[in-house]
Specification:
InterPro entries: CorA_cytoplasmic_dom, CorA_TM1_TM2, MgTranspt_CorA/ZnTranspt_ZntB. This is Magnesium transporter. Its main location: membrane. GO terms for molecular function: cobalt ion binding; cobalt ion transmembrane transporter activity; magnesium ion binding; magnesium ion transmembrane transporter activity. The protein is α+β, with helices and mostly antiparallel strands. The protein has a domain at 296-357: Methane Monooxygenase Hydroxylase, Chain G, domain 1 (Up-down Bundle), CATH 1.20.58.340. The protein is 54% helix and 14% strand. It is built from 9 helices and 7 strands. α2 runs antiparallel to α3 (89-97) and α8 runs antiparallel to α9 (336-357). The termini are far apart.
Length: 361
């Protein structure tokens, strides 16, 4: 069992180390169970009771494993669990503070897998949406007789995964690494589901950009691209972690579990390639939207220039006759005023018709 170093206290540097009342691990524990031959055993409700149950079964020559589920534990709670299961301090620190990239590390005989979870946020329209994709994290500690899962985020629940495994039982008979596969498979399947929903938003945005009329909201495209980039940062690094599992740590897993993990890797690559494609497509849409905005501005400037040219005719005539010279053309003719007005109107109409014919108006 590896040694465990205590994590730094909560106090800030230079402040006195005030001890706060410890919060029981049960406050952060979502579920706790011991499994023997694929079946859940009744009894243990705490992680220490599960450890004691494992010892009793080991003394009887029976192989079982415990699955402890935690949700956003603090340092003291995580230290307590780590001390009983022999978890390494560096991995425990990552599990407490979260905000990790997907990765896979081996600490002695314990695998530490970090998964980023994603969730699609429903919205009426992209223009009014503030967030499209939200992320969370799942940390999985896997040993020869235990699985400890640490979740961050409200959408990353594993209750459905546990129920499915307990109903089937065949996969649970493969041991703790089969639980790791089920969690990874659940997360990656969610990637595919979320990417399909994001694709619908991208299709709507593409249709809006290339529609004949209407204004293009470039801000909405930038927001959508930002969400896709966040999705890409959450999904893409997991490919390297799962590949590392197949190449470097294959001796820890049975052949059957390796087959399952290869299937997860295939789905993961598919999801990562989709997201990379969405990123490239949105880059093209940004360029197309900027080009469309430029064309709209050119059209507006042509319209403004055309109306200015039309307005210049009466302005010029009014400026000439407003100089109040004594000798001016047709100044003493009784019909000079209506004649000038008709001439101005006729010239304006001719200019309007010319601009209209050239699609400036």
């Amino acid at each position: 069992m590896p040694s465990f170093r205590a994590l730094p206290p909560h106090g800030r540097p230079g402040e006195p180390d005030t001890q706060r009342a410890p919060v029981p691990v049960a406050e952060a524990m979502v579920d706790c169970a011991v499994y023997l031959d694929g079946k859940r055993l009744p009894g243990p409700r705490t992680h220490r009771a599960a450890v004691q149950k494992l010892r009793e079964l080991r003394e009887d020559g029976r192989t079982a494993f415990a699955w402890i589920g935690l949700h956003e534990p603090d340092e003291q709670q995580m230290q307590t669990v780590a001390a009983d299961f022999g978890l390494h301090a560096l991995a425990v620190e990552d599990a407490v503070h979260a905000h990790q990239r997907p990765k896979l590390e081996l600490y002695d005989n314990t695998l530490f897998l970090v998964l980023k979870t994603v969730n699609y946020v429903p919205h009426e329209s992209i223009e009014n949406a503030r967030e499209i994709v939200e992320t969370g994290e799942i940390m999985v500690f896997v040993g020869h007789d235990f699985v400890v899962t640490v979740r961050h985020g409200e959408h990353s629940g594993l209750a459905a995964v546990r129920r499915q495994l307990e109903d089937e039982q065949n996969q649970l008979r493969l041991g703790p690494f089969a639980v790791m596969h089920a969690i990874a498979d659940h997360v990656v399947d969610r990637y595919l589901a979320v990417t399909a929903l994001v694709e619908g938003d991208i299709d709507d945005m593409e249709e809006d950009i290339f529609s004949a009329g209407g204004r293009t909201d470039v801000t909405a495209i930038y927001m959508l691209k930002h969400e896709v980039l966040e999705l890409r940062r959450a999904v893409a690094p997991l490919t390297d972690a799962l590949t590392k599992l197949q190449n470097d740590y294959r001796d820890l897993l049975s052949k059957e579990v390796l087959r399952y993990m290869r299937d997860v890797l295939d789905h993961q690559i598919q999801a990562a390639e989709r997201i990379a494609g969405y990123d490239d497509l949105l880059t093209s849409l940004v360029q197309a939207a900027l080009a469309k905005v430029g064309m709209q501005q050119n059209t507006d400037m042509r319209k403004i220039s055309a109306w200015v040219a039309i307005a210049a005719v009466p302005t010029m005539v009014a400026g000439i006759y407003g100089m109040n010279f004594e000798y001016m053309p047709e100044l003493d003719w009784p019909w000079s005023y209506p004649a000038v007005l008709c001439t101005v109107v006729l010239v304006c109409v001719l200019i309007y018709a010319r601009f209209r014919r050239n699609d400036w108006l």
